[in-house]
Amino acid sequence: MAEDKLEQVKGNIKETVGDATNNDNLEQEGKKDKASGKAKEVIDNVKDKASDVVDKFKK
């Protein structure tokens, strides 16, 4: 999960620097990294919740 947050931070930095320097490629890469990190984070959260539900039914 920490890797997902790190990817989001990295993306935010790239997006900010790309915007500040008018570098559209870097800005788009940053947006992609942020979205990818967020998607991975959501998937991990869903997996955790599903695991919790399964564990409750096993009891």
Automatic annotation (TrEMBL):
User: Which stretches does UniProt call biased (Basic and acidic residues)?
Assistant: 1-17, 28-40
The lineage, from the top, is: Bacteria, Bacillati, Bacillota, Bacilli, Bacillales
**Would I find Cell cycle among this entry's keywords?**
no
* Short name of one Pfam family: CsbD
Q: Which InterPro entries match?
A: CsbD (IPR008462), YjbJ_sf (IPR036629)
Q: What is this protein called?
A: CsbD family protein
| Keywords noted in UniProt | Plasmid
Sequence ranges assigned to domain CsbD-like in this UniProt record: 2-52
Query: Which source organism?
Result: Staphylococcus epidermidis
